[in-house]
């Protein structure tokens, strides 16, 4: 590892992500374009301290930020008691919306520190480090969002080996995301996980497994209709988390009857997403779904994205 002399600084960005994709709870996610977090990291000689500031005053600074957990672990694991780490977090991803906001910050911080400090972390080590930030949010680490934000594309996570396999879709996929205005500001990943069943029946396991393998097969052969069918078929998580999202089943029915190929909850929610074969069609459907929510007294916004081929990447380094 290189020694730090003077003042070194790096800016890194990482994209938003949508986890689960229906039946792939904790093992599938996709990075999406248009939304990203940026962190600026500065390292100076010091006493092993970590300082985190958020550009947005609504986002916690200091120990309340996921970047603090990641940077503190680096200090601890690598014995960097003669350095201070400063992190400035610029959020571009809505918080507590199911779009991997905490994962993007954690991924950008982990990747930036690896590069800036010359740690040379491999994929597994980066996943483990970024997962420290997710543990802060969810109570324990999970690696789907951080893997997508680190490596881009659609990722399949093996939690046993702590490895992520990146799939590049054969066809372009347009993604519509509807983000309801949160009436419950305490909608957190930890809560959305707490309502899930601890055990499921063997019959349910088989049905869920069939949806999952169908989804992976559809990605590899480029069958968007089959992909949408698989995304829409979640027998374990969707029945429970949908209860936290107003008019969820109405939105799903409307989307699927109006051209969406697949529809489900974005990560822990409350955002929902669909896939579509065209950008104009995705925009039109987003407007229809937002209009439906508005008509029922729920404010919402939307994004139309594609899959981001880029994961965490460096925007600039100063030494």
Written overview of the protein:
With 319 residues, the chain is an alpha+beta fold. The chain folds into two domains: 8-167 and 308-318, 2-Layer Sandwich (Ribosomal Protein S5, domain 2); 174-305, 2-Layer Sandwich (Alpha-Beta Plaits), CATH 3.30.70. The chain has ten helices and eleven strands. The strands form two sheets. Strands 1, 2, 3, 4, 5, 6 and 11 form a seven-stranded mixed sheet that branches. A four-stranded antiparallel sheet has the order 8-9-7-10. The protein starts with 7 loop residues before the first strand and ends with a strand.
Question: How is this structure best summarized?
Answer:
The protein is of the alpha+beta class and 319 residues long.
Helix/strand order, N-terminal first: EEEHEHHHEEEHHHHHEEHEE
The mean pLDDT is 92
Oligomer: single chain
- Overall outline: globular
What's the CATH architecture name of the largest domain?
2-Layer Sandwich
Largest sheet: 7 strands, mixed
Poorly predicted tracts of residues: 1-5
Rg result: 20 Å
Query: β content, as a range?
Result: 25-35%
CATH level 3 topology of the largest domain: Ribosomal Protein S5, domain 2
Number of strands: 11
Q: In terms of structural class, how would the helical and strand content be classed?
A: alpha+beta
What is the helical fraction, as a range of percent?
A: 25-40%
Number of continuous helical runs: 10
**Quick one: CATH class of the largest domain?**
Alpha Beta
Distance between the termini: 16 Å
């Amino acid at each position: 590892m290189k020694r730090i002399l003077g003042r070194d600084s790096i800016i890194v960005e990482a994209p938003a992500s949508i986890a689960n994709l229906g039946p792939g709870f904790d093992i599938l996610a996709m990075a999406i374009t248009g939304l990203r977090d940026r962190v600026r990291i500065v390292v100076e000689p010091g006493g092993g301290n970590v300082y985190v500031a958020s550009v947005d005053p609504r986002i916690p600074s200091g120990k309340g930020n996921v970047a603090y957990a990641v940077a503190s672990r680096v200090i601890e694991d690598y014995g960097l008691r003669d350095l201070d780490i400063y992190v400035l977090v610029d959020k571009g991803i809505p918080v507590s919306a199911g779009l991997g906001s905490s994962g993007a910050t954690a991924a950008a911080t982990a990747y930036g520190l690896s590069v800036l400090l010359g740690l040379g972390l491999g994929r597994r080590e980066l996943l483990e480090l970024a997962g420290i930030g997710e543990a802060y949010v969810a109570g324990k680490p999970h690696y789907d969002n951080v893997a997508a934000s680190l490596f881009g594309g659609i990722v399949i996570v093996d939690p046993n080996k702590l490895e992520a396999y990146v799939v590049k879709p054969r066809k372009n996929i347009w993604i519509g995301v509807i983000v309801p205005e949160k009436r419950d500001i305490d909608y957190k990943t930890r809560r959305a996980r707490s309502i899930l069943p601890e055990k499921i029946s063997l019959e349910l396991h088989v049905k869920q497994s069939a949806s999952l393998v169908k989804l992976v097969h559809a990605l590899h052969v480029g069958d968007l209709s089959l992909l949408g069918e698989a995304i829409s078929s979640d027998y374990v998580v969707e029945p429970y988390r949908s209860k936290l999202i107003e008019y969820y089943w109405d939105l799903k029915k409307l989307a699927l009857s109006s051209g969406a190929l697949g529809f489900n909850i974005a990560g822990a929610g409350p955002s929902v997403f669909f896939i579509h074969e065209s950008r104009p069609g995705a925009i039109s459907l987003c407007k229809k779904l937002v209009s439906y929510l508005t008509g029922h007294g729920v404010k919402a916004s939307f994004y139309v994205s594609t899959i981001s081929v880029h994961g965490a990447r460096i925007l600039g380094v100063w030494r």
